[in-house]
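In the laboratory, one determines a bound structure by crystallizing the protein with its ligand and collecting diffraction data. In a computational setting the workflow is compressed into a single prediction: the sequence and the ligand go in, and a structural description comes out. We illustrate the idea with NAP.
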Amino acid sequence: MTTTDHDLVIIGAGPAGLTAGIYAARARMNVLLLEKVVPGGQILVTDWIENYPGFPEGISGFDLAEKMKIQAEELGLKIETAEVHSLNLSGELKEIVLKDRSITAKSLIIASGASPRTLGIGEDKFMGKGISFCATCDAPFFKDKTIVAIGGGDTAVQEAIYLTKFAKKVYLVHRRDELRATKILQERAFENDKIEFVWDSIPTGVEGFFGVEGVKVKNVKTNEEKTIKADGCFIWVGILPNTSFLNDAVETDEFGFIRSDAKMQTSVPGVYAVGDVRDTPLRQIATAVGDAAIAAVSAEHFIGNL
Ligand code: NAP
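The predicted complex, in structure-token form:
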């Protein structure tokens, strides 16, 4: 076999990537984990996690990410800050093109996660001036203020509840009259006096001069339009896969999430996809770490059979 830089390269240091790194390091593979920003992924902006086993009181996303990173590094995982530019998966070795160099690996695990979807209602203009995707980062700026939160999934409902610790009022705008979020979150939101639901409504624009002053919403059943006066607008309407470097190197579904089988293998042998970036019916930390354990062991077997 041609010489290679690494047995395994992992792209992305969220819970999935870090877990794959823990398993690979314990298998004594020559493994490198590449992370574009800082280790942790989306859980870094998750205030409180209550559904990851082993933490009966819950744990902050930041603390859980830190614990995973420490565990991985203590086992010998090398983590490098580098953005993947593209992949060349046509040869025997997997080539990972970075900004300043290319590296090769026998196997590759893509754990690049997902990012919040935008709505095109003024995010560019008002980002940092009242529009946000991160309650953990920005909620303290809205003490005793009024906020519009958009979305009906787990993120929107969980984060809207968190916002009420600071804001005096949170309008939760959802395009249907039923939430997608898990029932326990729904119950808490319905019980929360500070949350007012704006059902069957979509945001159509943001008003303001220096910052957000109101959010225009349209009722999709009656077509009635109104402006909700607010100081901030948090958008949580789903996620998009982080796959800009992929360039069709592996197969994806119609939404761009990477197709993978029960061993987490993609359409290219020896290349695996785990966590939020793959086409999965459930996106949780628990499922991401499960994916990653399977992928790391699959990669080990793949390399062993080369
Ligand atoms: P999601 O589950 O896809 O929900 C997105 C929400 O935004 C839905 O309510 C959707 O409405 C709405 N939406 C989508 N496009 C819209 C548009 N153009 N205009 C207005 N509304 C729009 O996304 P998510 O809440 O970010 O969650 C992502 C994944 O992470 C999920 O698998 C979720 O379970 C997981 N997660 C779990 C937890 C937890 O366990 N505590 C916390 C956060 C996230 P419809 O309902 O009408 O489609």
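The first strand starts at residue 6 and ends at 11. Keep in mind that any predicted model is a hypothesis to be tested, not a measurement.
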